[in-house]
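To: structure desk
From: M.T.
Subject: fold request, one chain
Message: Could you run this one when you get a chance? Sequence is below, nothing fancy, just the single chain.
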Amino acid sequence: MYDGPDSYILTGRTKENNSKYDLIVVGGGPAGLAAAIEAYQNGLQDILVLERDQELGGILQQCIHNGFGIHQFKEQLTGPQYAGRFIEELERIGIVYELGTMVLHITKDKRIQAVSKEYGYQTFYAKSIILAMGCRERPRGAISIPGTRPSGIMTAGTAQRYINIDGYMVGKRVIILGSGDIGMIMARRMTLEGAKVLAVAEIMPYSSGLNRNIVQCLHDFDIPLLLSHTITDIRGKDRVESVTISEVDENKQPVQGTGVDYDCDTILLSVGLIPENELTREMGVVMDPHTKGAKVNQWMETSIEGVFACGNVLHVHDLVDFVTEESQRAGRNAAKYVLGESMRKKTTSTHIVTEAGEGIGYVIPQMIVKELSDETITLSMRPTGVYTDAELLVKGDGKIIKTTKKSYMAPGEMERIKIDRSMLCGDIGTLTVEVSKE
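Reply: Done. Structure tokens follow.
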């Protein structure tokens, strides 16, 4: 058990020794669950998971469609089924968790302040922390759509919760703005519930979601996908009555005279996700302006020693299976950190900085601790455009050390490259990933 500071003040909760933990995981969604279980399986038992919602599983609980678990379990699971496997394991091995608990503040010395209806204000202390708070959808205010402000405009995730959790139908004639995965999945879901989805408008010249969702959610239901289009007007006083959708030029500006009116009562927004990093920034973690998440090394450790980040709070993923894999890495290395294994020597090691080259938006991890890298390192990234018959090049100080052929790449789908330690020999200081078009 962690000794912690001598003068901590415990309020609200009075259970003995419940404020000090070896590891505290902030967030009980797929990332937090996988990280906590992996830490336990690597030697930690004194673990607490804090979740602000009333149940574990995060956004998976409202994702009743299948497509989860293909990589992790070689099965097609629904969101609740996928989450259920981790929740059952968490409870079986006895990891402690608190629901309905909102974390308010985290300090650099790993003191966590939180509040809940059951226990009131609480202060926790941890040897190590894993940040797994997930992300949230961009609302209308973030993209400045013109027009009136009637009811009937909501994010796709909100509509998904209303329908799948609360049992409310949110509209009959629907326009969806943005072709993210949630928007396309909701296009299919609304159709199956009897609504008419008139179109999915996407301002970019390509979809921002998975190709499989374009096929299974739009093409299979004859729902038009209007690329290089956006909403240029919303009409309606109490409820949405109609919208205008216009083409946009290469600068994403509406082209005059191209507007088409659609009579509808509902607009769903699927225009991007924002990692929830208010706590991360407040505690002084170095952030990546491209991912909007923390900068991490190959162990998923942030710039603050013993603080790790994983899942959508680190960067927005396309598949939950990859969230799980990444979070298991964070949990495994958080356990090593607490148990005092080799990671503590890293301050004397050489670091390699990763960079996004031509055609790549970002690379994670942003830093590789070289001497202690005894594992295969997975680089995650997203291309900035659509590429066919291209190559991903990994360069060490400008020299190619690995190439991977790709028949198709798009911004909606993550790319991953595994780098063996042997490829990082010598005095490499910068590792760059870029797209080479044949």
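Reply (cont.): Confidence is low (pLDDT under 50) at residues 1-17. Let me know if you need anything else for the meeting.
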